[in-house]
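Subject: Short-chain dehydrogenase/reductase

B.,
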Amino acid sequence: MTNKEKARERREKRMQEISLLRTIPYSDHHRWWSSENVAVVTGSNRGIGLEIARQLAGHGLTVVLTARNVDVGLEAVKSLRHQEEGLKFDFHQLDITDSSSIREFCCWIKQTFGGLDILVNNAGVNYNLGSDNSIEFAETVVSTNYHGTKNMTKAMIPLMRPSSHGARIVNVSSRLGRINGRRNRLTNVELRDQLSNLDLLTEELIDRTFSKFINQVKDGTWESGGWPQTFTDYSLSKLAVNAYTRLMAKELSRRQEGEKIYVNSFCPGWVKTAMTGYAGNMAPKDAADTGVWLSLVLSEEAVTGKFFAERREINF
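Prediction pasted inline below.
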């Protein structure tokens, strides 16, 4: 058997395992949610976000979809309501790169539901396909995937409802953003150590790192900057999301019992969506599973500040 055939066999086995996981019901003993609980899924008009919204509603929550384009978002909700009768969906326009859009969305959530219980930060962009590694849209990628996620998280935290089980923030990320990945990592060992060390990690460090990258993109020196060489802008934006996940988990862990917010990120895999040009090897329904699981699962010990794939913890 060739290496290519072995790799295909491993992928097929993994897909079967993920499909099996999706059939395992959540125990009624651990079911803390009802239709009164609200989940917000950003960028949920298609792909992984749409599937996460569908599955969360299928478990009985009220789910708010968002999209930049109102018509596209309303069409997604209409389609879900037609396919999934009896489930609770709502929609509101949201552009996570626009501070006024975020403020308007916050006001609507507060007025309509009084708050939320789960935030899934799914909205993101990628402009590279196949072997491409263009940095033409690097500023947009970092602004959306990192700054947009960060700003949305900060805006939603005050609206997250206190409870004994804890509110949840789930960030859709990527293995491409691993700090110590073997093939696609930062070559600057000192910077890797700083970003890896939770005692040294700060929002200022994350922001400064990615401002440096954008400045090097603008002056044409980024290739000598020691940045990841595969999907450079996207990989870095997800590295920032992973770092911010750990930072926020640390800060929010100081909250007293009953006001806890658990923050984790996950890699959905290489998924058949518009972002990959439909070249992925995983269906959205399987890719969404870990995000839904992190949104709902209860454990004896709080799970926060971790990175997951296929319901397994992986290294940042």
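Residues 3-23 form the longest helix (21 residues).

T.
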